[in-house]
Amino acid sequence: MSGRTLEACLEPALAAGGQKAAAARVVIALASACVTISDLIAQGPLAGSLGATTGDANADGDEQKELDVQANDAILAQLAPTTTAYYASEEEDAIMTLDPAGDIAVAVDPLDGSSNIDANVSIGTIFSVLPASRDGASASFFRPGRDQLAAGYVIYGPHTALVLTLGDGVGLFVLDPVSRQFIKARSNLSIPVSTREYAINASNYRHWTNPIRLFIDDCIAGTEGPRGRDFNMRWVASLVAETHRIFSRGGVFLYPADNRPGYQSGRLRLLYEAFPIAFLAEQAGGAATDGVSPILYKSPTGLHERTPLIFGSLEKVNRITGYHVDPAFERSVSPLFDQRGLFRA
Questions:
Q1: Which pLDDT does position 344 carry in this prediction?
Q2: Which is more confident, 55 or 178?
């Protein structure tokens, strides 16, 4: 049913009690923080130079933008009254303890795509909600992605939207600019099964491993190649923007490992980027992998651990996995745009 507020849609979870209710309350708090972030972003340069660097780097070595810090602060302020025991963020050096008696752990990328702030390109917030472990902070986060209670992202674009799962399908909520509440727009969001779009940064072609090159070469070859159809490439350099397009019209996103220093294990963070996106993708009928293993089977061993990430339409993700693990896909790498290979789709 569309047209209901986020809080109304979460009433069954709130009534269930226990961790389900606690997770729902945390989602409401995160949504409230994202309203604040949305308002700040909407001011653009009128709010100051939000895209300016603070002079500091986050725990993962990336330059912090002013808006990164403000987004992180807004989320912490909203989580404070909840039963969140532990908080992990791209902007924090270590796991924070908020409520030692709490029962929820929250991992967040407060502002994904912040390099696009000044360009007025869609950016977002990504979050993962996990049960707090009795064994402490590390055990709460260093566990398989399948343990997530909820996950979602908020995209700040022409409109602000929340895409959310509590493990029973994916819902789309849109921020009403009048009431300042998230209103349900769609239930049971699903990723289209078949599509002719892929998203990758093709400037890194020379650094890719053979399976990724072969897959992209086959797409570029179009109707005359082994796939027998033409494809379109998209690349926004904002994970949330790429994800929202795939949820809207299908496709596959690839941020593989490559041969550059610092990229051999991938670049996206497993805990607060890949886990929530993978949970959403699977709940929407899609899939997510690192090229060989499903993302949700992985367990991080470090707070800011990186991973390759490939997700989107199930058929495309399975095909890319085949290029990595099926000997039938092995062949010599030909120059870009050349024709070779089998397996028309």
A1: 41
A2: 178
Q: Are residues 169 and 317 in the same domain?
A: no
Residue 335 lies in a domain: no
Is 111 designated active site? yes
Is 109 an active-site residue? yes
Q: How confident is the model at residue 289 (pLDDT cuts 50, 70, 90)?
A: very high
Looking at the fold, whether 163 and 280 belong to one and the same domain comes out as: no
Q: Which of 66, 79, 98, 109 is catalytic?
A: 109
- For residues 23 and 167, membership in a common domain is answered with yes
CATH number at residue 304: 3.40.190.80
Cα angle: 339, vertex 340, 341; to 5 degrees: 145
Last residue of a domain, one of 138, 156, 186: 186
Radius of gyration of the chain (CA): 20
Q: Is 282 a catalytic site residue?
A: no
Q: Write down the catalytic residue from 273, 282, 309, 314.
A: 273
Q: Is 192 among the domain residues? A: no
- Lowest-pLDDT choice from 148-157, 188-197, 251-260: 188-197
Is the CB of residue 313 less than 8 Å from the CB of residue 249? no
- Catalytic status, residue 62: yes
Options 91, 217, 242, 282, the catalytic residue:
91
* From 66, 68, 218, 242, active-site residue: 68
In terms of C-beta density within 10 A (0-12 exposed, 13-18 middle, 19 or more buried), how is residue 333 classed?
middle
Is the pLDDT at 241 greater than 70, yes or no? yes
Domain that holds residue 28: 6-186
Note whether 199 and 214 are within 8 A (CB): no
| Per-residue confidence (pLDDT) for residue 321, from 0 to 100 | 96
Residue 90 a catalytic site member: yes
| 3-state secondary structure (DSSP) of residue 235 | coil
Query: Is there a single domain that holds both residue 150 and residue 223?
Result: no
273 catalytically annotated: yes
- To the query of whether residue 135 is one of the catalytic residues in this protein, the response is no
Whether 112 sits among the annotated catalytic residues: the reply is yes
To the question of pTM greater than 0.85 for the whole model, the response is yes
pLDDT in tens, 307-321: 999 999 999 999 999
Catalytic annotation, pick one of 6, 111, 189, 271: 111
